[in-house]
Amino acid sequence: MQVTEEDGGRLNAFAKEPRMVVMEQGENTGPGRPLLIGGLLLVLLLMGVAAGIS
């Protein structure tokens, strides 16, 4: 940790940040689209169940 001294003698500690990685255009980071479609289907199913109950 990096520690700096502020006015009045107080110490302030900063955590080490990980290095940033620059992604190339079109680089996929995981299960984006299938997860989005699954979430949409789940919301629609829950709305149907709620409408059926009421």
What does this structure look like?
The protein contains one helix and two strands. It has one helix at 32-53, and strands at 2-5, 11-14. The chain has a two-stranded antiparallel sheet with strand order 1-2. The model has no long low-confidence stretch (mean pLDDT 88).
Quick take:
This protein is 41% helix and 15% strand.
**Helix content range:** 40-55%
Rounded mean pLDDT is 88
With helices defined by DSSP (H or I, 4 residues minimum), what is the helix count?
1
Counted beta strands: 2
Q: What share of residues are in beta strands? A: 5-15%
Structural class: alpha+beta
Order of neighbouring strands in the sheet with most strands: 1-2
Q: What best-fitting shape do the alpha-carbon axes yield?
A: elongated
How are the SSEs ordered, and which strands pair?
Elements: E1 2-5, E2 11-14, H1 32-53
List descriptors:
54 residues, alpha+beta, 1 helix, 41% helix, 15% strand
